[in-house]
Structure formats: structure tokens, C-alpha cells
# Entry
Amino acid sequence: MEKEQYILTGDHITKTYAMPDGSSFDALHDVSVAIPAGKLTILKGRSGSGKTTLMNILCGLDQPTAGKVLLGDREVTAMNDRERTAMRRSDIGFIFQSVALIPIMTAEENVEYALRLAGWKGDRAQRVKECLELVGLSKRMKHLPSEMSGGEQQRVAIARAIAHQPRMMFADEPTGELDTNTALQVVKIFKELNRTQGVSILMTTHDKGFMEIGDCVYSLENGVMKDA
# Structure
């Protein structure tokens, strides 16, 4: 695969923490990844393997001790805090294991609020409708999170994450609290977003059942990249 077909690359990333006894610990050691554009990439590994640390570095929430991250042709690791914040608001979407919807807002209002935060200049009502239709919730737009199942709440979270049309979406254990069938529905939505929206998705999971669904699979073990 040629370089320009990757939307995000991490080159030789190391993240070192100082320990109280004066020693150091590598949460990540010389990790390199290349995320293909418009595809679903899965990052697997046990709890504590370094998945979330790597994801935080790739999206600019944290800085590596060594190595660099490129989003397209922009070096994320060379940006200052303000530049990285602006990049996340315009180019990146986030989905977490805990959906963190605003409980007093309907599905429609949760997605619309995300557009306001991103400074969306277009027709917000129309974009909200489009996003909720994409995740199969056009008939649940007026419902509060408490009136929805866990899977429906996660689908609202997906609609919220894609609303501002990010180039790259990070999903950290998005199926961790869902049953197998509901989790599979969420991953199928990811694949549909790849196909129809062209959004690139990096998803962390410890569920081996999703390995065959990913277009690209990476495996972390004790902060070191292993063969998937």
C-alpha cells in the first residue's frame, strides 16, 4: 500500500514514564502503525497492553517520549496545544466505551450540541437528521438516553462523533459494555460509515470475534507491537 493511502501514521512511538523508585517504564516501545484511509483498523490487546495510550498519542491528546505522528501530511507531534485542539475539533471524532451522552438532552439535541461545539457552519438540523438516519435512529430522535437501550445510546454516540464530518474516528472499546449481537451491529455501522462516508476508523478491542471484520489488524502486547 502506497504512503498516500494511509490517513494516519505513527512512526517508532515510545512512551516512557518515570517511576517513584527512580527507574523508568515504557508503556509503549518503538511502536509503528499505518492506518489505511476509509477503512476499519482494529487494535487488539489485553487490558494494560498500551492500546489507550497509543490511541491518545495518535489523536493528539498525549505526546510520545519519542517518535512522531502524521495525520495526512501534518505532523501532529510537532503541533502546539492550540493547534492539536483545533485539529481534534475539525478532523477527529471520538467514541468511548462509556457513551457519555448528556442525559437531559434527546438524541437529536446530543448530536446538535456536538455540531455547535465543532462550529459547524451548515444546516445543523439537516445534518443531525442525516447522522441519526445513518445509524438507524431516525424514529428515536426525540428520545432521551434513559429511554434507549445500550446499543441505541452507542449509536447516538456514533452519530455525534461523525456529525462534523471528521477524517478520522477513534473508537476506544466501543462494544465493551454491549452484548455480542448489539456489538456486531455497531461494528457493521462502522463498516457502512467506511463505505458511505469515507471516514477512517481505528477501534480498540479485546474481543477476538471482531478480528476478521477489520480491514487491518494490529496487536499490542506489553507496549510492543506483535504479529496480529
Observations:
- The chain has six helices and ten strands.
- The CA atoms of residues 45 and 220 lie 5 Å apart.
- Residues 180-197 form the longest helix (18 residues).
- The chain has a mean pLDDT of 90.
